[in-house]
Specification:
Number of helices: 0
Distance between the termini: 41 Å
Strand content: over 45%
Helix content: under 10%
Order of helices and strands: EEEEEEEEEEE
Oligomer: single chain
Low-confidence stretches: none
Largest sheet: 7 strands, mixed
Shape: globular
Amino acid sequence: QVRLVESGGGTVQAGGSLKLSCSVSGSTHLMCWGWFRQAPGKEREGVAGLDQGGGTAYADSVRGRFTISQENGGKTSFLQMDNLQVEDTAVYYCAMALRGSCYVGFPPDYWGQGTQVTVSS
């Protein structure tokens, strides 16, 4: 059974940084790592995508501030978030797809449990 486990959320002041982690357990061959977020009262939106060749994609709102990466043979993904702003406050979800293109907001096969990121002014 495939399971994604996230860690690293928290509260930070505007301008600060946080790093989210997501690890996959269970046997699978993944194609895409992605990160999504959902702010209160808003729909879930894609933030970043990463393919197994190292190609990345970012939402316009986070490009230049967020960095998606992977290690451990692709079994762990990270989202480094710098220069955080109040509008980045949301529950962040990691996600994984077994096939397809790794664009921002790709349809995942698996989701993490979500972790809260709160940015204060």
